[in-house]
Design a protein that fits this description.
Number of helices: 16
Number of strands: 11
Largest sheet: 9 strands, mixed
Mean pLDDT: 90
Shape: globular
Strand content: 15-25%
Helix content: 40-55%
Distance between the termini: 78 Å
Low-confidence stretches: 1-40
Radius of gyration: 24 Å
Strand order of the largest sheet: 2-1-3-4-6-11-9-10-5
């Protein structure tokens, strides 16, 4: 049977067929190079780390990871800020930043009457900090955390900053409550809403329970849960509890590395081989996103006066918590690799 084909349609059909044939004849590597995912370079994440480093030492592993991710071009550290009022927190942060070649990163600390002042029960900050180069000797030498936050956020493009908190939510509450000043005419809520893309918090236990970071400053935690205007992703207690790291860092890390020294000393005190990785999972998700590693549950967190939390599913909620997806050994290997990273100068 003869079928009449319009000349223009016939030419289009021939052209399409030839294109398909040419594509099929291309080498595999050339075809892959033409895919958008291979040709578009992801911009580094502008990130502020807020840490209570001292009562636990997974913060040190998380900060080491953040420097590794920055050296790989995946992150751009705007500041490393203390949420703990203990006098050695800023020096510990400075010590680690200095080791990784970033001695001039801005550091702030809480200055108000409220807040938490706590250190390790076996005093690793006192034991280790003075053994490594750093310039800051006390929290008193750094600016108020809220002032620094306002300065940093005001200077950044809109919706460009990720904040990850791996300690108390003290600074987040103070930022939200801050008034307009010479840095910005916006109040704290408006400034966060304008400049912050996401808050990733190692906080809470899901779907319900009690967790250290939330409990220690329960009032601040509840205020942030109620008033924070952007998305919050929670990496709960149950996520990091199962991911044990540190042994590889201790056995293969540089003897000059203060983070290795912190883990070696602390694990020996605890008579343990590894430590839970609560803070590292939050940093991983803050920089690389959750999709390769976790699923999300959407809703709202509720925080009680005693610091315990519960959860309510809500398809309109701005809160999410991580749910396991990648196998725990694979997550562990990812964290250990980043924790063992050494700066090129070392």
């Amino acid at each position: 049977m003869f079928v009449n084909i319009h000349p223009i349609r016939f030419c289009s059909l021939v052209f399409f067929t030839v294109c398909l044939w040419l594509t099929a004849c291309q080498p595999e590597s050339q075809r892959e190079a033409q895919q958008p995912s291979a040709s578009i370079k992801k911009e580094p994440v502008n990130i502020i780390l807020d840490t209570d480093i001292g009562p636990d030492y997974d913060d040190a592993g998380a900060l080491a990871m953040l420097h590794a991710l920055t050296d790989r071009g995946e992150a751009n550290i705007l500041a490393t800020i203390a949420s703990n009022k203990h006098t050695l927190v800023a020096p510990v942060i400075d010590m680690i930043n200095t080791y990784y070649g970033r001695p001039n990163l801005p550091i702030g600390a809480p200055k108000g009457a409220d807040g938490v002042n706590i250190t390790s029960s076996y005093h690793w900050p006192e034991e280790i900090t003075d053994q490594y180069p750093h310039n800051i000797r006390s929290n008193n030498q750094v600016p108020a955390a809220t002032t620094l936050y306002r300065q940093l956020l005001a200077a950044q493009p809109d919706t460009s900053v990720t904040i990850t908190t791996i300690g108390f939510l003290t600074n987040m509450a103070s930022l939200l409550e801050s008034a307009p000043d010479s840095t910005s005419a916006m109040n704290g809520v408006d400034l966060v809403s304008r400049k912050v893309k996401t808050l990733v918090a190692m906080a809470g236990k899901f779907p319900e329970g009690k967790e250290f970071n939330v409990e220690k400053d329960a009032a601040a935690s509840a205020y942030v849960a109620m008033h924070w205007p952007t998305t919050i992703i929670f990496s709960g207690f149950e996520i990091g509890e199962k991911v044990l790291t540190g042994a590889e860092l201790v056995s293969t890390g540089s003897p000059n590395n203060p983070v290795r020294h912190i883990y070696e000393f602390s694990l020996a005190q605890e008579k343990a081989e590894n430590r839970m990785s609560w803070d590292q999972t939050a940093v991983l998700v803050a920089v690389r996103g959750y999709k390769d590693y976790y699923d999300l549950r959407q809703g709202r967190i509720q925080i009680r006066e005693d610091g315990s939390n519960s959860w309510q599913d809500n398809p309109q909620g701005r809160h999410y918590y991580l749910v396991e997806k990648m196998k725990i050994p694979a997550v562990r290997d990812t964290l250990e690799t980043l924790m063992r990273h050494e700066p090129e100068a070392q």
